[in-house]
Design goal:
Length: 84
Amino acid sequence: MQEQLIGTVTHYFDKPHVGVVQLVADLSVGDTIHFRGHTTDFEQTAGSLQVEHGPVESAAAGSEIAIHVDERVRAHDEVYLVTD
């Protein structure tokens, strides 16, 4: 499995379990992503994506997205797209 850096976490909201990610590459619903940081290391499928408080199926590089996360993420965690 290969990984490509697609973004960095800028913020985390605990109660809704949502991370805000600044993208440097495209991301789509259904993609497998890997969150990695000093105390963060997990993979998940990108489910719910939002841009400007509205749901989207994909987001382009340069976008700031909100994504529902399975575990806690922290500012400066890196986000990777997992490919075969």
